[in-house]
Amino acid sequence: MNLEVFIKRGLVKRSSQDFSLVKSIISTSKLDIEFLNTLEISEVSARKIMTNYYDVLRSLLEAMAAIEGYKIYSHEAFTFFLKEKKEDILAEKFDRFRKIRNKINYYGKNISVNEVEENVKEIRKMIKEINKRLNKN
Fold this sequence. Notes:
Elements: H1 3-8, E1 12-14, H2 19-36, H3 46-68, E2 70-72, H4 75-84, H5 88-107, H6 113-136
Antiparallel strand pairs: 1-2
Helix pairs in contact: 2-3, 3-5, 3-6, 4-5
């Protein structure tokens, strides 16, 4: 599969670049990360913290897509967007986190504190890297 398949299915649409959306997403993601950093990861909070970090990551990918003139309506399509941009490692990591989030949200899977701590470290690194790229634009 590739990004073109998602475009044909209407799950990705070409649009004009939307720099005001990018600016807004960057601003709100910073606030979200600030908030998430105040939370303690525990057995009770692990699931929600994991899915919320994923949401921040996904929103920043939405900003990347907006710069390129895409509106993406499918979480899975972000993986193929990244692959098209030759961001294979970022695509693989994002897809792994997407699957973890889906198991939590749709299949009631629990996740350990240790796993969330490791995932959050990796997501934070990804967020920093994406923010660097977004701020260049």
